[in-house]
C-alpha cells in the first residue's frame, strides 16, 4: 500500500521535531504538545500516527534498524567482517542526523549494541568453523567484547562528525578484531 505524500510529509515533520527536541533533552521530558508545536501540526494529527513520543521514537529506530539489517545481510553475503562493518557504517552514515541524535547523551544507549547483535549467530558459527578448538564460552565473550567495542568506536565516529570513511572505520575494527580472535583461537 502506497502512503499518501501528505502523510509521509507529516510523519517526516513529526520525526524531525522529535529528533531536534532530543538534542536538547531526554525523551521522558518531551511532550506531544512540544513535538506538535515544532512540527506545526495539531495533536489530533500526531495521535492519528503515533501513540506517544516513545512510539514515535521506536518507529524511527525501527526504520533505521531495518535499513542497517538489510546492510548487514548484504555484507554477510560477502562473508568478510570488513565488508559487513563497512555496510553497517554506510547505513549509519546515510542516516547521520538520526544517528547523531540516537547516539547523543539523550539518545538510546543500547541501539547500536542491538544492531551489532544482529550478526551474533552468524559470527559465532563462522568463528567456530575457523577455530573448532576454541571454547564456545570464550567465543561468546569475544563477541561481547567486539560488539561493545565496535559500538563505542562507531558511536565516537558518529558524534565526532564522521570524518573517516565507513571503509576506514571498518578496517580499524577489523584489525583490532583479528588480533583478539587470534588470541582466543590460539593462532
Detail the topology: elements first, then pairings:
Blueprint: H1 5-22, H2 32-39, H3 43-49, H4 53-78, H5 81-94, H6 96-102, H7 111-116, H8 120-130, H9 136-159, H10 166-185
Helix pairs in contact: 1-2, 1-4, 4-5, 5-10, 8-9, 9-10
Notable characteristics:
Arc Repressor Mutant, subunit A, 187 residues, Tetracycline Repressor, domain 2, single chain, 2 domains, 0% strand, mainly alpha
Structural class: mainly alpha
Query: What Rg, in angstroms, do the CA atoms define?
Result: 19 Å
Overall pLDDT level = 86
The CATH class of the largest domain is identified as Mainly Alpha
- Assess the beta-strand content as a share of residues: under 5%
Low-confidence stretches: none
Question: Helicity, in percent?
Answer: over 70%
What's the number of helices?
10
Largest sheet: none
CATH T-level topology of the largest domain: Tetracycline Repressor, domain 2
Number of strands: 0
Q: Return the domain count.
A: 2
CATH architecture of the largest domain: Orthogonal Bundle
**Shape estimate:** elongated
Q: Quote the distance from N terminus to C terminus.
A: 53 Å
Helix and strand pattern: HHHHHHHHHH
Amino acid at each position: 500500500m502506497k502512503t499518501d505524500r501528505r502523510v509521509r510529509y507529516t510523519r517526516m515533520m513529526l520525526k524531525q521535531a522529535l529528533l531536534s527536541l532530543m538534542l536538547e533533552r531526554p525523551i521522558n521530558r518531551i511532550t506531544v504538545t512540544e513535538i506538535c508545536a515544532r512540527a506545526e501540526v495539531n495533536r489530533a494529527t500526531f495521535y492519528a500516527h503515533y501513540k506517544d513520543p516513545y512510539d514515535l521514537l521506536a518507529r524511527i529506530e525501527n526504520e533505521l534498524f531495518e535499513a542497517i539489517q538489510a546492510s548487514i545481510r548484504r555484507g554477510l553475503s560477502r562473508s568478510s567482517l570488513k565488508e559487513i562493518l563497512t555496510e553497517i557504517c554506510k547505513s549509519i552514515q546515510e542516516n547521520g542526523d538520526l544517528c547523531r541524535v540516537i547516539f547523543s547523551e539523550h539518545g538510546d544507549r543500547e541501539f547500536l549494541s542491538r544492531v551489532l547483535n544482529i550478526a551474533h549467530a552468524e559470527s559465532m558459527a563462522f568463528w567456530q568453523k575457523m577455530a573448532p578448538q576454541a571454547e564456545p564460552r570464550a567465543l561468546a565473550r569475544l563477541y561481547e567484547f567486539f560488539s561493545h567495542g565496535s559500538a563505542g568506536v562507531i558511536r565516537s565516529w558518529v558524534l565526532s562528525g564522521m570524518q573517516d570513511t565507513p571503509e576506514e572505520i571498518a578496517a580499524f575494527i577489523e584489525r583490532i578484531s583479528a588480533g583478539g580472535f587470534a588470541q582466543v583461537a590460539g593462532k
